[in-house]
Amino acid sequence: MLAAVAVLVLGYVVGSIQPGIIVGRLVRGVDIREFGSGKTGFTNTLRTLGLVPALVVVFGDIAKGAVPVLVGQYLAGSDLAAALGGVGAVVGHTWPMFAGFRGGRGVATSFGAFLAIAPIPAAVAILTGLAILAVTRYVSLMSMLGTALGLGVMAWLVMVGRMPAEYLVFGVIVTLSVELNHLSNLRRLLSGTEPKLGQGGAPRAPGAA
Length: 209
Prior knowledge:
Elements: H1 2-16, H2 19-28, H3 42-49, H4 51-75, H5 79-94, H6 107-117, H7 119-136, H8 139-159, H9 167-181, H10 183-191
């Protein structure tokens, strides 16, 4: 149990590193959170800085989700440690200790942890998500539906004995986090005001949600 808690803490620290903020400072000398959605992930970086910086950010966010999981699996040798490492990374990305507890929505970091924990559910989530994105061009809809479907596949694999039950700790907590972090997007989708892929990126108004 001590090892699992240690990996959880490690995950939070690693997750708190924000590639979006680092790239924003290096590329344009700005805080990415002052633009667009105010988040630090791929979508806001794409809208604000362009494709190449956004790709750097998304790969960094994916990697920091996978690393704590791999530490839990191969160094701690514990399914629970792997699951908690992924949880810690997503929590760290969303509420980062190094960035005033203002991060992103955790989608890419969740995917990185999903990929390390359960490649099959991760593949289902990303393929479904990309299909949704291709049809609708709504990144938020891709994120919400893809993550939920990934959890569903993970739960089924646990039920049939193909995956440790401990992984559901990760799946449930992270899915809830991603969905709750997209409530404002859901409201905009329902009202028809949600920006599509590539739209947005203007400076944020003071106090904007």
